[in-house]
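User: Could you go from structure to sequence for me? I need the amino acid at each position, not a summary. Structure tokens:
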């Protein structure tokens, strides 16, 4: 069974119908039909929430939260192991701290990271990436 980590980029593209939205929809469908396991780090989950809140309003941010809760996406807490891996990625790759958590989760779960964020280019030799 395939395993995917959804970066905030993936969920934002999906929710806005942007490039890559169909790919994310297919991955979510695979999760719903038990053909794939889906994960997201709580840091990236929070990132989507704050971006939605900042760009729209509380009502839309809460709608995101409620919608994601119904999807087959496991929200993974940032424990010490994950945080240490994220810190190491952040130290040696030009990326945001939140992106480092998505990369760390993909490595920890041996999963494919789903993103369109070019900050992950330098990670291609360390984790598998499905580019949107």
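Assistant: Here is the amino acid at each position, in order:
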């Amino acid at each position: 069974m395939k395993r995917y980590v959804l970066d905030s980029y993936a969920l934002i593209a999906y929710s806005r119908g942007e490039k890559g939205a169909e790919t994310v929809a297919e991955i979510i469908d695979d999760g719903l039909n038990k053909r794939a396991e889906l994960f997201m780090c709580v840091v990236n989950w929070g990132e989507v929430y704050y971006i939605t809140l900042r760009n729209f309003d509380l009502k839309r941010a809460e709608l995101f939260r409620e919608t994601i809760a119904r999807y087959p996406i496991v929200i993974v807490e940032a424990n010490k192991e994950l945080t240490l891996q994220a810190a190491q990625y952040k130290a040696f790759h030009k990326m945001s701290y939140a992106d480092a958590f998505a990369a760390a989760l993909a490595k920890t779960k041996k999963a494919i990271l789903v993103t369109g964020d070019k900050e992950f280019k330098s990670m291609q030799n360390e984790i598998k990436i499905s580019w949107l």
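One structural detail worth keeping in mind: The chain is about 55% helix and 15% strand.
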